[in-house]
Amino acid sequence: MSQDDFWQNQSHANNVCKRLSDIKEEVKEYNSLKEDIEMLLELCKDGINNELEQECNVLKTRVDKYSKKVYLSGKYDDLNCYLEIHPGAGGTESCDWSSMLRDMYINYFDKKGYTYEIISEQKGDEAGIKSVVIYIKGQYAYGYLKNEQGVHRLVRISPFDSNKRRHTSFASVSVTPEFNEDINIEIKDDDLKIDVYHSSGAGGQSVNTSNSAVRITHIPSKIVVTCQTERSQLLNKDKAMNLLKNKLYQIEIDKNKELINEVKDSSDINFGSQIRSYVLEPYKMVKDHRTNYESSSPDKVFAGDLDGFIESMLEK
Predict the structure, then answer these.
(1) 235-270, pLDDT tens digit by residue?
(2) Considering the entire predicted model, what is its pTM?
(3) I need a surface site. Which of 98, 135, 154, 183 has the fewest CB within 10 A?
(4) Which CATH architecture has domain 189-253?
(5) In what order do the strands lie in the sheet with 223-227?
């Protein structure tokens, strides 16, 4: 920050300032914990009474919370990210399940104090959504959400079945970090197919009045990105291009071919490939198949209570 040309690149400067602020906050909490532990140890030399025991429990909770950051030391864990949801086979059922997942994650973002923006969303023909892309901004957003990538399975009595039969639905979740450094990705114009179309959403003066929404297809990788949040076609194109660059950059930096294959395989949204099951009938349970962490309160999970699932994966 003391370099003469530091502020010439505003975007880079803002990222460095944010990182500095995060580090200062972590150091401040570390020093506070260290002082409180030393003081409490001194007080406990003559024995522990009820009041000191309560202080120890409070301090243990603080230490446990702080120590979780040890599991968020990945190179990109502190970055903002994009989260996408796509339904599997099953038509209306899977589209409705995708919208339930979208609401669950939004509730989680609210609990974490994250800000978010729905970059694009395509409504289902009868109910739910065919796809959604959400941009999430907050400390360790990617670190906390990266393990949510995979297939999510729902078992319930279908509200769309007049015979009240039990149905199983699938939806896939993918998470991409927003890389802070300059992304040196060459994208040829000939490799892009750009479509514009009417925006769709919850209304507004400009919705469905102009072709402002943008869909970009990267032909070599078959990656498709869309953006419809801005009234300006140019701004939507810029946001869509930024998302495309991040997706391509993630593939470039990921030299582990097995991991790349796993990401590709996540497009197989079928039975047996799920990372987590949400069962509402004949019993109530949400279970992560990677860690065996489970909850018997699906309502709380759908209300955004995901910390147990996310932390169990981080500690794995």
Answers:
(1) 888 889 888 888 888 777 665 445 445 444 444 555
(2) 0.74
(3) 183
(4) 2-Layer Sandwich (3.30)
(5) 192-197, 213-218, 223-227
